[in-house]
Amino acid sequence: MLSKFVIASGLLATSFFTNASLNVFTCQPDWAALVKQHAPNAEVFSATTAMQDPHYVQARPSLISKMRKADLVVCSGAELEIGWLPELQRQSRNSKVQNGKDGLFWTTDYVNMLDTHDHVDRSMGDVHGHGNPHVQFAVEDIPNISKALVERLAKIDPSNQALYKGNGVKFRADWRKHIKRWHSLGDSLKGMQLVGYHETHRYLFAWLGVEQVADLEPKPGLPPTVAHLNSLSSISSKDANGIVYSSHQPTDAAKWLSERTSLPVAELAQSVGGRPNTETLAALIDDSIAQLLNLQRN
């Protein structure tokens, strides 16, 4: 009787382990959405929302607890999370998600990075030597991230590798269809010139042929100042088609400059969920292009 109980308990434990959800900690809602499309049965958590600046996050006990349980951590990298992620890694004491381990996945490792610098110092503002880390807008590189993510998921959770691979193939096929449509939609945006607020949309602008000719920030990461905004007030419709800011940023600087230059203003989501109907990466790109087209019409 005892041996039967032991055997049954062992089978139950094995079954529970096999069916247990993969626990994934992500640094931004963009990567949470991406993981969900590849691993729909996983428990996925995002440390930030679309209305937060991912550069500046507190290493709260709740985040430490979430990371302690993680099988996989998916973040941008390129020092975007340098101010808070290392502290979460340290305090979580989760050996699976430390640097160099399979449980830590940097999306920027699979992107052709823009704006890399050989030398960076604090006088330059919040500049990342490894390049612009806002790669949720790196349209052409998202399939590379998808492939690498599938490989990592399969390595960590081989029992579900067929699911991950199948979802990855579907995601990339759909993404290629989106790219064709975005090319068609964005044709008229080529040559557009904008005043931006941080270079959050750098990859999308480069892909569309849009140029950010000025920035509301005096230096990357520094808030707009009156002196800097005054220096931009001579910009006219001959110099730029409009002003854009991200949905998590204050609106006052963009509105102030718009009132003095008569340039139209558009709000873009910085991340999945930052505006209505932006719950996936594809929807985020859709909405961003739609807002730029609206701006062009004004």
UniProtKB/TrEMBL annotation:
Signal found in the keyword field: yes
One Pfam family named in its UniProt record: ZnuA
Keyword Signal attributed: yes
Protein name, UniProt field: Zinc ABC transporter substrate-binding protein
Signal peptide: 1-20
SUPFAM superfamilies per record: Helical backbone' metal receptor (SSF53807)
Keywords per UniProt: Signal
InterPro entries, per the entry: Bact_metal-bind_prot9 (IPR050492), ZnuA-like (IPR006127)
Organism: Vibrio gallaecicus
